[in-house]
Amino acid sequence: MIMTRAFAMAALAASASAHFTLDWPATRGFNEDIENQFCGGFSNAGARSSFPLGAAGVNIDSTHDTANVIVLISFDANPQTSPSSAIRATVRSSPALSNSTSKARPASQ
Q: By its UniProt entry, which Pfam families does this protein fall under (predicted)?
């Protein structure tokens, strides 16, 4: 599996009523007041995550049955604007599986 250190960020945007934690890749931080800004409001692009380019997943813990999620990925060395790649997926989790992790994967095109 090909890995890259150029993975710049993964940002999740869900509905205002959504409750979830992003477990992988790790977030840069969380500040509800600025989370709707580019890169969650965090401009420091110093921390990078290795990210598999094929069959990559995003792990979240959700307290809702369904959520609309968008994952934004940039491979730029110093991203300052919206990334060139966007992955849209619908995440489904089962309330019967407490503390389960859902994997968001690209929706088929």
A: BIM1-like_dom (PF20238)
